Known about the structure:
Elements: H1 4-14, H2 25-34, H3 40-71, H4 73-81, H5 86-97, E1 103-106, E2 111-113, E3 116-118, E4 123-126, H6 128-131, H7 135-138, H8 166-183, E5 187-189, E6 194-196, E7 203-206, E8 209-211
Antiparallel strand pairs: 1-4, 2-3, 5-8, 6-7
Helix pairs in contact: 2-3, 3-5, 3-8, 4-8, 5-8
Amino acid sequence: MAMAPNIVPWITAACAREKLLATGVGAAIYAAADAGEINADEAAMLVRSVLSAGVDTTVTGIGSALWCLAQNPDAFDALKADPKLARPCFEEVLRYTSPVHTFARTAALDTEVAGFGIPEGAKILCVLGAANMDPEKWGDPENFRINRGPVGHLAFGVGIHGCVGQNLARVELEAVLVALARKVARIEAAGPAVWRPNNAIHALDRLPLRFY
Length: 212
């Protein structure tokens, strides 16, 4: 919060329409405003969201994918044999590592979940990482399986709280994984992974690797 007075103006300035490439994602969002699909304020907010909410999480997803593949060489062999597995591989990375492991919400009305009463205004901590490792849902959650097809994981949220940039993240990670499958023979750990403590993001601080 102490850094916000410097960070927020920088983000706002960096996302101004005149600062963006004419062929980029941000320009496409502003073009949607020109076409009347959204208004100008919504366009500016969406561009800021892609930057402020989409960079750390996507970088974290790339690191987590590399960690998973280094820890599971059979999975990387399967990816190399069939690069079309890049998308389901990323979905399993998301389920297995949960780049956003917790998220807070406020109950809008009195409700009940699994027999537990939740009063209006109650603060709720949604532990996405725990849900993504629930054995009742996944059977063998501790096993990283590239062909699992984990439909229903919560790494991107759900419903109206679903990540607005999730399909962009999928395209980015698919590009990285396909390039790795085509250009790298194997991935090996060159030292222990160090995970960064954070209240919301499950991110690597260091991940020494060797590519062959």
